[in-house]
Amino acid sequence: MTNPISAQTLLTRELLARRRPGYSLEAPFYLSDTLLQADMEHIFGKHWIFVAVEPQVPEAGDYITVDFGKNSILIVRDDDMQIKAFHNVCRHRGSRLCATQQGVVGNIVCPYHQWTYDLSGQLIHAKHMGDDFDPKGLGLKPVHVRSLAGLIFICLAKNPPEDFEQMVTEMTPYLAPHRLQDCKVAAQIDIVEDCNWKLTMENNRECYHCMSNHPELTISLYEYGFGYQPDEHNKDELQRFQDIMAANHERWEGMGLPSAEIDTLDDRITGFRTQRLPIDRSGQSQTMNAEVASKKLLADFVDPALGGLSFWTQPNSWHHFMSDHIVSFTVLPISATKTLVRTTWCVHKDAVEGVDYTKENLTAVWNATNDQDRRLVEESQIGIATGAYEPGPYSPFTEGLVEKFCNWYVNRLSELTK
């Protein structure tokens, strides 16, 4: 006897089969609790998800918790200075172990009955359990975790996608020179957007909206860096940008900083894209004057004008690596119509606040941009919910990465719901 197909699977298959390439998704993808359940099971439950940076857990015993869907994950640095990840659930009667978002522990102690686990997740103390009690096999349930040059990814699947190693091989030369592990967290800000998580990601994957909505970001952002329709009026400016990019790529490559584009956003399970782009104006950093936010440069950099290395991963992150600081974004669903966007700014671990940098200057551009994007995606969510919405066509010049995100999403969900 075959198992009956669930209503969730039937609805998901029907909507996926109707998806028109080059167009936005149908309304249920952004509104339906049933589709969110499919997303949590098949996208966030079976792929590598970016959740944190290593400077959030710099010392043994430092931990953070990450919540998405019904999952609560505990990430801790153990006594051997390795990153470990566990389900944040006691093996006794299921109590949540750590309720705060971050902290420091010697051992992991359940607040309910004080079952105690060491930092490797092994149960080391459980009182009143009798002489025959065997703690073996009752350690914390592990979660797959990997660090890519200081970026922490987890996977809830029993067998995670193996092509993560391919991404590590290709991206480590790009990311490692910035030495994220030698940084500290200067600021971290959470915002909740009243929209589906896919609208947040789609908005990130294009800059069609940037010039008319992001005056702070476009101080340092070249207008042509993320796609533009060529015509008779802009051909000279487009050529100038291409010349600037070619000259900078040659200079950066000569400094040992890979810069060429790699794009596997929709042709791998662990899809990603990277490229180092020049920064406009003074060309140093994503700040209100395009100069460095921190006078203490990362790693052993001496040249502040190293452009902005952008790194996007499917399904839920983007990052900007510069000479003086690193900004990372993680997107986590709260419900079908609410999404957490967590932004983390890192500077050199020896940079001194008030001397080398100020939080206000460091965070100004992306605080403004995040608030503007929140308004944009929330207006999209309202429009989609009216009933008048139907999928519209993407620009082939400025929304190609949105199509790649949707294509990846549709292909992965189709494969996993067969």
TrEMBL record:
- InterPro entries hit by this protein: Rieske_2Fe-2S, Rieske_2Fe-2S_sf, Ring_hydroxy_dOase_asu_C_dom, Rng_hydr_dOase-A
- What keywords are annotated for this sequence in UniProt? 2Fe-2S, Iron, Iron-sulfur, Metal-binding, Oxidoreductase
- UniProt cross-references to PANTHER family, sorted A to Z: CHOLINE MONOOXYGENASE, CHLOROPLASTIC
According to UniProt, the name of this protein is Rieske 2Fe-2S family protein
Record-stated family: Belongs to the bacterial ring-hydroxylating dioxygenase alpha subunit family.
The answer to keyword Cytoplasm applying to this record is no
**What cofactor does this protein call for?**
Fe cation
Question: Does Repressor appear among the keywords?
Answer: no
- Alphabetized PROSITE patterns for the sequence: RIESKE (PS51296)
Q: Which Gene3D superfamilies match?
A: Naphthalene 1,2-dioxygenase Alpha Subunit, Chain A, domain 1, Rieske [2Fe-2S] iron-sulphur domain
Domain Rieske intervals:
48-154
